[in-house]
Write a structure and sequence with these properties.
By secondary structure, this protein is of the alpha+beta class. The protein is built from 9 helices and 17 strands. Strands 1, 4, 9, 10, 11 and 12 form a 6-stranded antiparallel sheet that branches. A 5-stranded antiparallel sheet has the order 13-14-15-16-17, covered by helices on one side. It has a two-stranded antiparallel ribbon with strand order 2-3. The two termini are about 50 Å apart.
């Protein structure tokens, strides 16, 4: 996919690890994809079942030509070791002799960093699929088949490699706890309703605090919005049915942010009753505005700070104290 890897562990990943209720985890992510798309990405050796749907193998070692991390995973690589001092190494080459048709040997010694061979890990990507909701697309979880343990600790380079391998092949990364099956974890990321379906008001995305009463034109791109949400370290993504463009960023069971990929829509922070409130249309949410089961944050100037303050007030990240309120 041409996705770059990581040089350090992202802050959002560290936050996800901190929030785990179990010590052991894998690097993983979810996607809603057409099977052919996944087949093109990973060159899967699958088949077709009796209903005509493409079947996925339970795991696959990503092809080496998918990128440098896939190649290193398949074939290994040499790296320079800078924890030890440089060592002398002889270099030599043949050079043409002046005013002659002959050559002579030139050699020199240089101090270089020692090299070390890292053997191929051959890490497979585990693949689990849930097709119960849509016959045209599949809900898929990908997880690198390597377990990390918070209690025992880990080498950061190993975690960075697993993150980069998944990023290169799937395009996103996250943390999957090992205290449940991949299928069970996958099914928790999807709900059987359309999230915040559109209402009948033309100005459903209007900022209610604006006296002009029209949809605000915002300067933030879709990628910026989603990057802001991801930077806070959600523990999972939640996808709904239907045509809604809202995606849930789950931080805890009682703290979910619903963001819309479409231009001009507000985001919603919901709490312990998010399952019930996310089924309502935005029109019905406005009508129930006196009942504070959610916080609506329009994408106007300063929305990023308001979101961060709302999360902190509700105890996120878990290692930070809630913000003081009047």
């Amino acid at each position: 996919m041409g996705k770059k890897g990581f040089r350090t562990i992202p802050v959002s990943i560290r936050k996800q690890i901190t929030s785990l209720t179990t010590d052991t985890f894998r690097v993983g992510t979810t996607a809603r994809l057409e099977p052919k798309k996944v087949e093109q990405w990973l060159s899967l050796d699958g088949g077709v079942d009796q209903t005509g749907l493409y079947t996925f193998p339970p795991s696959i070692v990503p092809p080496a030509n998918n990128g440098r991390y896939s190649s290193w995973n398949q074939h290994g690589r040499e790296v320079s070791v800078r924890t030890r001092g440089k060592t002398p190494k002889d270099f030599g080459w043949w050079a043409p002799s002046f005013n002659s048709h002959s050559h002579h040997w030139i050699s020199q010694t240089r101090d270089v960093w020692p090299r070390e061979l890292l053997y191929a890990l051959q890490l497979p990507l585990l693949i689990e699929v849930d097709r119960n909701r849509d016959s045209k697309t599949s809900n898929v979880v990908f997880a690198v088949d390597r377990v990390f343990d918070r209690a025992a600790g880990w080498d950061d380079d190993d975690l960075i490699f697993a993150l980069s391998l998944l990023q290169e092949n799937v395009g996103s990364v996250g943390i999957v706890p090992t205290n449940q099956t991949l299928v069970a974890w996958l099914q928790q990321q999807y709900v059987d309703w359309e999230i915040l379906p559109g209402g009948t008001w033309q100005d459903v995305a209007t900022d209610p605090n604006s006296s002009a009463g029209h949809v605000r034109h915002i300067s933030h791109s879709t990628q910026t919005r989603l990057a802001v949400l991801q930077s806070h370290g959600p523990t999972a993504l939640i996808f709904g049915k239907g045509a809604s463009n809202y995606i849930g960023y789950k931080f805890r069971e009682d703290l979910v942010v619903f963001e819309n990929a479409q231009y001009g829509n507000a985001l919603y922070v919901m709490y312990d009753q998010w399952r019930e409130w996310s089924k309502l249309s935005r029109v019905d949410l406005f009508r129930a505005g006196g009942v504070k089961r959610y916080t609506r944050i329009p994408h106007r100037e300063g929305w990023e700070s308001r979101l961060a303050n709302t999360l902190r007030t509700n105890g996120w990240p878990p290692d930070e104290a809630p913000a003081e309120t009047d």
